[in-house]
Amino acid sequence: MPLVLISGYPSAGKTYRARQLLDFFRDKIAQLAPTDARIARLKVHHINHQTLGLHRDVYHSARAEKDARAAEASAVKRVLGRDDIVIADGMNYIKGFRYQLYCEAKAMQTPSCVVHVGTPVDRCREINQRLLADTSTDGGYVEEDFENLVFRYEEPNGMTRWDSPLFTVVYDDETPPFDQIWDAMVGSDGKAKVVRPNAATVLKPATEQNYLYELDKTTSDIVSHIVSWQKDHPGEEGGEVTVPDAENAVALPASIVSLPQLQRIRRQFISLNRQHNLSKNRVRDLFVDYLNDAFQAA
């Protein structure tokens, strides 16, 4: 079912609008469920900084921000399905990231939309300053991060396929256009909204040759990612390495793991799984788990 992306300036009220939508969807499902089996199966998920356990200081550095976006993308992919409505209101200010999530939804043959919270930047700045001063909340964005995010914000454009349909909610609106969003995403004619995927987003069954290539490439990419992380984090032995699109992180041991050690573990994993025909995502998750088990056993 649909993916609803909430986008707007920092401190624009994205989470507030997302919670309004969350309550509306749940009430609508409860209202229609007794007479519509399709609606009764629907579940609603809300994904943002808080649900992912992320703090706003991830915007201090490009690497932390990239890892945070990967965490959101993974969380969305885990719950996105035919019977799930996903509301994501964090880190959707880059059009390339919105396009990535649009492709994920299209690959699942489910619709997506963007809700633009159109709060003026000056009002956002005032709200952010109040949040920073209020110790009873989780706070706003530090001034440097706030201005940086405003500068880099790429406003949704309803003329592009990944930002459409686009619903804009101005600051003075009491609620988003609930009924329009419901009709566009779920439908009111009793039929499920189905999106035909592009050929580029359809996962083709892997032949043996393709599988061995993906097995080799995926594991090699993870090893390179770990080596790169260790170089970028000197003196941080024992940290956790977030692998893009993997369900779990790699928990490094207390001592630095050398490239030969990683390659040896990788060869063992490939040898064990050469005869299988796993999906790329499954290979990634299994290799991360295999690495963690190997590090714990060492």
TrEMBL record:
<comment type="similarity">
    <text>Belongs to the KTI12 family.</text>
</comment>
<keyword id="KW-0067">ATP-binding</keyword>
<keyword id="KW-0547">Nucleotide-binding</keyword>
<dbReference type="Pfam" id="PF08433">
    <property type="entry name" value="KTI12"/>
</dbReference>
<dbReference type="GO" id="GO:0005524">
    <property type="term" value="F:ATP binding"/>
</dbReference>
<protein>
    <submittedName>
        <fullName>Chromatin associated protein kti12</fullName>
    </submittedName>
</protein>
<dbReference type="InterPro" id="IPR027417">
    <property type="entry name" value="P-loop_NTPase"/>
</dbReference>
<dbReference type="InterPro" id="IPR013641">
    <property type="entry name" value="KTI12/PSTK"/>
</dbReference>
